[in-house]
Specification:
The structure is a single chain. This protein is of the alpha+beta class and about 400 residues long. The chain has a domain of about 190 residues: FAD/NAD(P)-binding domain, CATH 3.50.50.60. It contains eleven helices and 19 strands. Strands 1, 2, 8, 9, 10, 11, 17 and 18 form an eight-stranded mixed sheet that branches. Strands 6-5-13-14-15-12-16-19 form an eight-stranded mixed sheet. Strands 3-7-4 form a three-stranded antiparallel sheet. α1 runs parallel beside α8 and α8 runs antiparallel to α9. The longest helix is centred in the C-terminal third of the chain and has 30 residues. The chain is globular and about 65 Å long. The mean pLDDT is about 90. The structure holds flavin-adenine dinucleotide. Flavin-adenine dinucleotide binds next to α1, β2, β3, β12 and α8.
Length: about 400
């Protein structure tokens, strides 16, 4: 049997669920499919141990679909973004720049939420939309674009005809492959370990990115639990160094993390499991195909620096909503509009993040000193700094 829908969203990750709810909230008939089960236990291999820092425009989007109130109890406020250089001979902070949200007239930059709580809460909220059919545990298997609609086959044989297919099926997107859209991938020889830590000192809403060699070590606030201070960590380094760190038991791993953090929050104690991610940049050569729009990591992947990844993905969804308001759903005009709106911004942000990552990677002392000088310069240039902040937050 053939089911007719306005929109099929392939992928129920954070981006796919946001897209599905945003379109369903304005009356579109949407189906969202994802092969992973709705609840994944913390010690399950498939558990997502990352956290996501949402900047304020993203929070505003979540408010509009009534999601924010459910998420707020899991969120920690981000008031200060601190960049530190510890690239000298000794492992100590030699340059520090603080960016505060109040500089650009905001109380906070955004909020940080653990991905597991995020996904579970989003799924529970998605189930309340009458025009959203959520099929967890089901994958897209095939796609056949036709003139008025695309025909999609799921792995249980269900066939769906949709005016628009939104590919939010991640960095290895099957939809992208079925449409023969090539990708350009840059590998940096880096990996990132993600984990949560308890610590003695409060973070006071400060997110800290520490640069030494091999990549940044980033501490992002999590809410206190039973009076215990907690943060999420992304520790980026070269592949071989990360492999050695992953072999360590919790106690020596916690000691190594404390040392790498220059002790800024006191001794760190790892909580729960560690996840390991390859760090890449990837850009699809086209953001659209017939009756199809690629969003989020199906379209662009970047190193986790400056909380850009998912926040850029939410800008994709805003652009799709705008384009759907101006043109027929899934029409060539709508997809061209989407492509025009997003292409330039994605390329610009990718280049910025890539530059920061290459600066973070450097092993060579004179280049490490240059990075320190660059940081110092950013810290002292008032108007440039405010413009960079507004742009980083997605406000300009
Ligand atoms: C270590 C790390 C830290 C990060 N921190 C931040 C941060 O602080 N702030 C930020 O903005 N961004 C951050 N990012 C980036 C952010 O996590 C990603 O941009 C975001 O998770 C991408 O979401 P997505 O929905 O595109 O992909 P995914 O989360 O990978 O979701 C894709 C979904 O598609 C499903 N799928 C796969 N194949 C199929 C199929 N055939 N049919 C249907 N569904 C399918 C998968 O099961 C999956 O659920 C970070 C990234 C990393 C690696």
């Amino acid at each position: 049997m053939l089911h007719n829908k306005d929109i099929l969203v392939a992928g129920g990750g954070v981006a796919g669920l946001m897209a599905a709810m945003s379109f369903a909230s304005i009356g579109y008939d949407v189906i969202c499919v994802d092969p992973s089960p709705p609840i994944v236990e913390q010690n399950d291999m498939r558990a997502d141990l990352r956290s996501t820092a949402f900047l304020m425009p993203a929070v505003e989007m979540m408010r509009q679909i009534g999601l924010w109130d459910r998420l707020a109890p899991h969120a920690a406020e981000l008031r200060v973004m601190r960049l530190c250089d510890a690239g000298g001979v000794e492992n100590e902070i030699r340059e520090q720049v603080d960016f505060t949200a109040t500089e650009i007239g905001h109380e906070r930059f955004g909020w940080n939420i653990p991905n597991r709580a995020l996904r579970q809460t989003m799924i529970a909220h998605a189930e309340t939309f009458p025009t959203l059919d959520l099929r967890m545990g089901r994958a897209v298997r095939d796609l056949l674009p036709r003139t008025g609609a695309a025909r999609v086959t799921l792995d249980d044989g269900t066939r769906i005809e949709a005016k628009l297919v939104i590919a939010a099926d991640g960095r290895d997107s099957l939809i992208r492959e079925l449409l023969d859209i090539p990708v350009r991938t840059t590998r940096y020889g880096q990996k990132g370990i993600v984990f949560a830590v308890r610590h003695a000192l409060p973070h006071n809403g400060v997110s800290t990115e520490l640069h030494r060699t091999g990549g940044p070590f980033t501490l992002v606030p999590l809410p206190d639990q039973d009076g215990v201070h907690r943060s999420a960590v992304v520790w980026m380094d070269t592949g071989p160094n990360i492999a050695e760190l992953m072999k360590l038991d919790d106690a020596p791993f916690s000691a190594a993390a404390t040392e790498r953090s220059c002790g800024i929050l006191g001794p760190l104690q790892i909580e729960g499991a560690r996840g390991c991610w390859p760090i890449i940049s990837q850009q699809a050569s086209a953001l659209t195909g017939p009756r199809t729009a690629l969003i989020a990591e199906a379209a662009h992947v970047m190193p986790p620096i400056g909380a850009q990844g998912l926040n850029i993905s939410l800008a994709d969804i805003r652009a799709l909503l705008d384009a759907a308001g101006r043109h027929g759903l899934g029409s060539e005009a709508m997809l061209d509009d989407y492509n025009r709106a997003r292409r330039h911004d994605i390329t610009l942000r990718e280049r910025g993040v890539e530059l920061l990552n290459r600066a973070a990677l450097t092993e060579v002392q004179p280049l490490r000193d240059l990075r320190r000088a660059g940081l110092h310069l950013i810290g002292t240039l008032g108007p440039v700094r405010a413009a960079a902040l507004r742009r980083g937050m997605g406000l300009a």
